[in-house]
Specification:
This protein is α/β, with parallel strands linked by helices and 287 residues long. The chain has a single domain, classed as HUPs (Rossmann fold), CATH 3.40.50. The chain is 45% helix and 9% strand. It is built from 9 helices and 6 strands. The protein has a 6-stranded mixed sheet, with helices on both faces. Helix 3 links the parallel strand 2 and strand 3.
């Protein structure tokens, strides 16, 4: 590589890191993800997304006007060919405090899920349960996950096409039991940028040997659809994500979000029963 090429590479690398850092910081600010005194558990899977998440949070931590604690937490699920040395060696090399949890979810998933069926759903539930339990025991105020913008857009279409619901992954979420606050600081970041950053940083990626090559057909189809859209119409995925942040309930059809029944009604009270409009068996006879 020539000196000029090396210089250009360095500039491009710095630009990418700066963009990811700015987008991460903006998401944290927009959704008030991290506050003074927070103890943040960073869930580290060993994939490109969680490595990038940890890197961005560490960089922001050094210049944040508020104090917050970071702890990297990884779950060893006892999958075949798992190399228990990779993460500890990397985390020690960067001076990052960490905890490795151990739980044999692999055997559970293999026993419960029939051969050839998708294992990701049960695997993720078991993993989430183990991580949430640890967060509760240790008193963490936030749980940081590495989901990015593309994950959120894909989930939107998955739910629309297969669950008939208009929902995705929110940047900030309170668990169903109210005990945990989950944050997704990479909500504004593109997967392609994260992949490039991970390659530049040479993160020691740990593939999932249980289901890493078993991505659900539905999500794979959505990803392919979005990729084709983006190829033909650059910026479309960004527009879809922006639409998720600009909801106009009166222009949709959810009666729980907007009171369509009262809209334009001349009566202050709720409308009368409408059985006569529903094609029931009641018929008015004429004598």
């Amino acid at each position: 590589m020539t000196a000029a090429a090396a210089r250009k590479h360095e500039i491009d690398t710095n630009k990418l890191a700066k963009r990811l850092r700015r987008q991460t910081g903006q998401a944290i600010a927009d959704y008030n993800m991290i506050e003074d005194g927070d103890r943040v558990m960073v869930c580290l899977s060993g994939g490109k997304d969680s490595y990038t998440l940890l890197s961005m949070l560490r960089q922001l931590q050094t210049k944040a006007p508020v104090r917050f604690e970071l702890l990297a937490v990884h779950l060893d699920q006892k999958q075949p060919d798992y190399d228990a040395r990779i993460l500890p060696e990397y985390l020690r090399s960067i001076g990052m405090p960490f905890v490795i949890l151990e739980q044999d979810t692999y055997s559970v998933v293999k026993r419960v899920i029939p051969e050839g069926k998708t294992m990701c759903g049960l695997c993720s539930r078991l993993r989430r349960g183990a991580l949430y339990s640890f967060a509760e025991r240790e008193g963490f105020s936030k749980i940081a996950l590495g989901h990015h913008r593309d994950d959120m857009v894909e989930t939107l279409f998955l739910n629309m096409f297969h669950q008939a619901t208009l929902k995705a992954m929110p940047p900030k979420l309170q668990s169903d039991d109210g005990k945990h606050m989950v944050i997704r600081p990479l909500a504004y970041c593109r997967e392609s940028d994260i992949a490039e950053y991970a390659e530049q940083q040479r993160f020691p990626i740990m593939p999932c040997n249980l289901c890493g090559s078993q991505e659900t057909l539905q999500r794979k189809a959505i990803k392919q659809m979005l990729h084709e859209w983006e190829r033909k119409h650059p910026g479309r995925s960004e527009n879809v994500f922006r639409a998720m942040t600009t909801i106009v309930p009166s222009q949709l059809a959810d009666r729980d979000l907007f009171d369509f029944a009262a809209l334009g009604s001349r009566n202050a009270t709720r409308p009368q029963p409408t059985d006569w409009l529903l094609g029931d068996n009641t018929e008015h006879s004429q004598d």
